[in-house]
Amino acid sequence: VNITYLKKYKERSDMYFREPPHTEEEKEERIEEVIALVGEDDKNKKYYCLFKGVDPKITVELSKKQFNRIPTTKRLNMLATFMQLVGTLREEEEGEDVV
Fold this sequence. Notes:
3 helices
């Protein structure tokens, strides 16, 4: 293994200038800042989203009511992108094993 170009990992926390919303009220106030849907829980009707300016390793749980407050066009685009990603992942899982 060539390790000539390996560098020590340095976390860049200064890139993310916002904290995720913690309270229900804060989620409601910042609903316009949702930038991506990364997961959903059909059973409990929860959506897991990323917020603008927040570390992308941090997801925020939104209720169905909160998620539906996202402007329609943006919400539909996020759902389409998410469903496309999920479909791609399922296709990869169902694909044949190559030996």
